Amino acid sequence: MIKGIGMDLIELNRIQDSVDRNQRFADRILTRNEKKACDGLPTYNRRIEYIAGRFAAKEAFAKAVGTGIGRLSFQDMEVLNDSNGAPYFVAKGYEEVKIFVSITHSKEYAAAQVVLET
């Protein structure tokens, strides 16, 4: 049974501006595992897309849950990739919920959709 749906769209230049202004911005958004994956990406632009995609996915999850980011910490949510490269979502306190996530990027935007199922 579907328990929630959330989506988010973010401008890449907003994320880039935040990263450029504040070196700790990525550390606030990304978990240790996500940061490690991000640091391994080949270009600065690809890292911005990665951070933006994770930001959008976490915002979409908060919308699907219905609480917003204020009640959830970015550090309590993690989006990694399986062996095929597909993203998967893990959230503390939501281990019994099946979480589907899709992330996409364009030249100017990153978007994510999350569906929660019990």
Keywords for this structure?
118 residues; 4 helices; 31% strand; magnesium; fatty acid metabolism; transferase; Ppantetheine-prot_Trfase_dom
Task: Indicate the radius of gyration in whole angstroms.
Answer: 13 Å
Widest β-sheet, arrangement of strands: 1-5-4
Strand content: 25-35%
The rough form would be described as globular
Question: What is the terminal separation in angstroms?
Answer: 5 Å
Low-confidence residue ranges: none
**Helix-strand sequence:** EHHHHEEEE
The tally of beta strands, per DSSP, is: 5
In which range does the helix fraction lie? 25-40%
Please, what is the average pLDDT?
Answer: 96
The tally of helices reads 4
Q: What structural class should be given to the helix and strand makeup? A: alpha+beta
Largest sheet: 3 strands, antiparallel
Can you summarize this structure?
The chain is an alpha+beta fold and 118 residues long. It has helices at 12-21, 25-29, 32-39, 44-65; strands spanning 2-11, 77-81, 87-91, 98-105, 109-117.
